[in-house]
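Box 3.1. Reading complex inputs
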Amino acid sequence: MFRLRTNLTDPVTFSFEGRRLTASRGDTLAAALLASGVFIFRNSPVSSAPRAPFCMIGNCYECFVQVEAMGVVQACLTEVTEGMQITKVSNQIDELGMDIKEVSKE
Amino acid sequence: MTTQLPLCDVAVIGAGPAGLTAACELAESGRDVVVLDEQGAPGGQIYKGVEKVFADRPQDIRPLGREYAEGKTLTRRFRQSGARYQPGVSVWQITSDQEPDLALGLIENGSARMLHPKHVILATGAMERPTPFEGWTLPGVMTVGAAQTLLKSSRLLPEDDVVLAGTGPLLYLYVMQLKKFGIRPQAILDTGPPLSLRTSLLGLRALITCPQAMFQGMRWLWGAGVKTNMTRGVDSLKAQGGDHLSSVSYEARGRRHELSTSLLLVHDGVIPNTWLSMSAGIKHHFNETQNCWVPEIQGAGLTSRDCISIVGDAAGIGGAEVAMLQGERVAREVDAYLEDHQHPQTSIESGVLRRQRWMRSFIDEAFPSTAQFQSPENDIVVCRCEEVTAGEIRQVTERGCMGPNQGKAFTRCGMGPCMGRKCGLTVSRLMAQVRGVSVQEVGHYRIRSPIRPITVGQLADMESILKGDNQSVLSANSS
């Protein structure tokens, strides 16, 4: 997708799903993840299909991620900081093994 | 610069060319101005990261282009203007005209608060037109604007296998920037129509009246076309892959082609970002030429609500230069209005502004929105959040659903977190096609606050603040 950057000046370390990654200070979370080769940010709560940033200006909400102590944020509008722990947003409906479209029809 | 006083003369929402110019003009003439910006630094989308690029990556200024570098003049002026700048702030509410006071609901650093300006200037800019087609929800498919944002703010460059598809000036500007960074895209799939006689005539008029802008545009087009694999007349674009994009296919001259790639960037022009103005109850109408909803504007930037003005691309697509000229006019208008609360005589549009409009009418004609995206096939997802297809929208409309608001109840279309930003235009268009009426008649989603996500906890915390002594809590906030 995007070229991995080398020789980061002023790097910050953060993690995504337990993986330790580095970014450039001032990067948005979305840029930091894409630059680290993370392609899938979340799964659709409707079909579980994989999703990733689409618009990068806060309008599509495809870049939702869970940040420790912050909750669910738009990765394209949030700056990465040292030690930030990021995970995918959990779709609790998945854990129940239900299809949301079927549930809503009932 | 980030004092938390809840009062001000004018709140400007958005820090692009329009918002910054209006804020500078008003602050320089002594008004107390607060600029609220969702981004971390001034410049808007067009001048995104311009201060950082000048400070940390001066070698990138040349490839990003002269037009981008001009943003630095504006941000420098703004920093010295005396306007209060509040980055990282989302506006989730403008109080309705039924409420006694004009107030803005803000979220800053995870907590909500209110701001009470005497006047609001919306400078919320533009966003890219939705482009529904098969596979557009796959990771690896993004907009051209998204990729350009990543380039400006973080110097992210796509791999050489990148494919671009669609139409519009931004696509060509980005390709030219990529080439200056040493990247030749694998393919550019142009979905635009061939140049008609009418377009050529409008182009000629634009060339005579705005030679500089036209030459700049031709430089982009020519620069993008040279030594690139550009295909014109592209139709039936599809993105394929499992968990991630793996290939793109399309039709050109009656034959189907396929390209392997990990990144597809799409673009189909830009439309005003009207979510805040719609939520404020301002009247809008559908502009068929620009294929988008626009607020109804009187004078320079007056709306159907006396205390709210709109400026720049949010009032109708005109580009950065028009946005700055309009910023000056709207600032003068607001300044006069704050003086005596009479609607002022609006200054006549300058010759430059009129000539810029001729330029725009050429751009509108030369880069019309893509037919494939305007009328997606039945199995195409139009609402990305709730995964509702074009077929479902057509079906409920055929069964008597009159408009997008009723459609929500049947399909959940437009009820996800994006609140219809990525499907609103498509859904209104599809319903208009089925009913055989204009998009204006079908209408748009009713947009209500909160227009940005806010948690119950954030709201509850704010309530407790309001119940206390306003001033003491607010001064505690600012310490």
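In summary: The mean pLDDT of chain B is 91.
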